[in-house]
Each structure stands twice: as C-alpha cells, then as structure tokens.
Amino acid sequence: MYVHNMLKKLDSFFKNIALWVIKIYQYTLSPDKGLPSFWLKWKVCRHEPHCSQYAVEHLQEHGFVKSIIPIMDRVSNCTAGHGIIIDPVPKNTTSPSHNKLKVVFFSSAPIGISFLEELHNDKDFEIIWVVTQPDQSSGRGMKMKANIIKTKALELLGAKATSLIQTPHTLKLRSKQYPWEGQEFYNWIKDIHPDYLVVIAYWKIIPQTILGIPTIAPINIHGSLLPHYRGASPIQTALLNGDKETGITIMKMSAGLDEGDSIAQLPITLDPTVTTLKLIDLFIEKGPQFTVDTLKKYHQGGLKTSPQDNSKATFTYKITKEQWEINPFTESLDEVVRKYNAYYLRPKIYFYHNNKRFIIEEITLDLKKYKDHKDEVSVDKKYNLNPAAQDMMIKAEWKKSIHREEWKKGYVK
Predict the structure, then answer these.
(1) How many CB atoms lie within 10 A of CB 175?
(2) Which of 40, 212, 281, 402 is the most core-located residue (most Cβ within 10 A)?
C-alpha cells in the first residue's frame, strides 16, 4: 500500500510538471493559443482538440505514465492539411464518471443556462459536448462575441472547455457552404455514443441521422403543454391567447416539428400579471430540476413515452411588427394586457397619439377588479384608465418612462 501511494504521488508530481510546461508552451509558442495562432491556427495542427490541449486533457484524465505514449503518438502523427480531425481524449473507464449518463447539450439562448448548470452539477450526468451557435460580430467595432451559452460553458467546464464546446454553422451532412462540417460532427457524435441529446432553444434543425445516435433518446425541452403550441414562440402565444395554464414538455425528438412522443409535462398556472419575463423566470426556477428528474426516471424505466394527439395540435407563428401596435382607446383592457404580457421583453407594445409614438413599459393591475372590467376599453375618451388598471408607465421615443398622469398632463391637449 505504501509503495502504491508513493507511485501515485510521483505520477501526480510529474503530471503537474508536464501540465505546467505544456500550458506555458500553449500561451507562448503554440499555433493554437500562443502568439503564432493568429497566422498558424489550423495550418500546423488540424486536430480537435489541438495536440497541446489533447495532452493537457489526457494528463488530467489518465495521469502521467498512461499518457506518455498516447500523447507522443498523437504528436508524431500530426500533419498539416485541409479539414479538422476530431479526436477527443478517451475516457478513463475506471473512474466514477464512467457510470454517468453522457449528455450532448444543445442551446443558443439565455434560458438554456440554468438547464446546463443543473446537468453539469448533477453527479449522475456528464456533459461531453456543448453545441451552440457560432460567435457573431457585434458593436461598433464588429468584434466577434461568444453567445451566452458558450460563455457559461467555458466557465463551467474549465480546462477541457475548448474541446467540449462546438459551434457548427450547419449540422447537415451535405452542405455546399460548409461541405465537411456536418459530416465531421456526425462522425464524432456517432463514435462517442452519448446517452442523451438535450435540446432547448438551439434554433437549428437537427437532422434525423443525428437524432438516431443517442443510446437512450434525443430530448427536447419545449415551453408549452404539447400538442398545444408547436413551433418557435410557445411562451408568447400562450400569453397572447390569455391561457390559464401552460407548462413544459419533455419530449423524445422526431423528424416532425415538435411531434415527438411526450415523456413528462410540468403544468404552470397563468394569470394576467404574468409577462414573458415572469414566465421565463418560472421556467428557469422549475424546469431544470424537473428535466434532470425526468431524464433519470426515463433511463430507469420509471417513465414511458406517450404519442401526441395530432388532431389537437396547435401552432405558433412568426411574430410581426404589426402585432406590437395597439389602440388603448378602442381595444379592451384584456386585449391590451395580453399583448403587453406577450411582447414584454421585445419589442414592447406601443400606440400613436397626435402622430407621436408611445411605448407602454409597465401596466399595474388590480386583479380583484380585473374580471369585471377586463372587457372595457383600456383608456376612455377622457383619458381615464380602466378601473382594473392602477397605473401605466408610458415612454415617448427618446424619453424616459413616466406615469400615466404625467403623460396625460404633458401630451394631452
């Protein structure tokens, strides 16, 4: 036992020295991250992860002695050329992580962050890849900026993050613009055999060839109680229709748009004070733990899939700018509140008065009076608010928000 412990300490000692040397090289001379990377990235080494990063990950996963030969073999066979060769570090099958459920996580929106964190923090899951949208230029300088999912993944996954985050332009096997990218993605994900694909607000179509790869299931987290509101804007549509209830559906993905079999649903109650922001916050509060519990139960056989009733399916549609405009002097309070709730985050509802455009930033309701007065106009001919509306914050273009009474004094003549 003493000799065994000493050998482990020596292995750890040499591993740390090797990691220190490699990381100095990475940030000085490496064509991947160092000073020459501006000219030489992908030109000297076309492996993904890059050979130096592969060495770091192999040492961290397997230790010094077991890493020497694989690292030397990888480096000696590294050649320049066209196209990226995806060659991840093999997992240590003797480690506790070998029994974890392997997840490839797809998302491109802020709502995905809490789901990513929950999966990352749960001991029964291992995130083996995070797939998100490519970096995009923004700002006056048009500098490249990573989306929020990539930023969070870099924070959570640490040293391994660079090889675990992928930002493909396409997942199609045959693409004229990116002829090799989809095929490389397919080859890698097929070889690594994930247990789950977990998808929430990814915003790209995932081909059936990829959906058939996971050993358990490809999972989509959808923001409605399917088969209601299939499509891209279920949150806004539920609020726009004044529904009393919506929720989250965990479904097994299929080729059709949100047509896959349902695994579990989480109902969420709505009232006229629930805006898009509040509903997203409810999803973030309740959804991640519900998702993790559902994936575990499904894996253990405690949940079965059930087909959706296609005859009851309803669909969401693209939101157009014409929908944002209201007329508070002719539309009922209920109509205005529904639009206000649905478009609360973006772009917000607006109206015209005396050829000037005004945005309604906030509406404060008296729920006790709402049922009795919701069908009356929002603002009467004397500019008085509906009795169920306690206040409105109104904003003229390029001005700050003001209370409805201030607006009335300043803009009503």
Answers:
(1) 15
(2) 402
**Contact of 207 with 173, CB cutoff 8 Å:** yes
User: Residue type at 19?
Assistant: L
**pLDDT digits 0-9 by tens, 328-351:** 999 999 999 999 999 998 789 999
Record the tokens describing residue 296, joined without a space.
């575990």
Alpha carbons within 13 angstroms on the beta-carbon side of residue 125 total 25
Tallying the residues shown for the chain, one arrives at 413
Q: Which helix (H) or strand (E) holds 334?
A: helix 333-342
**DSSP letters along 272-315, please?**
TT--HHHHHHHHHHHHHHHHHHHHHHHHTTS---B---GGG--B
Q: 18 Cβ partners below 8 Å, 6+ apart?
A: 55, 59, 64, 67
pTM (global) more than 0.90: no
Q: Could you report the per-residue pLDDT of 250-295, keeping only the tens digit for each?
A: 999 998 889 999 999 999 999 999 999 999 999 999 999 999 999 9
Which helix (H) or strand (E) segment holds residue 62: the answer is helix 51-62
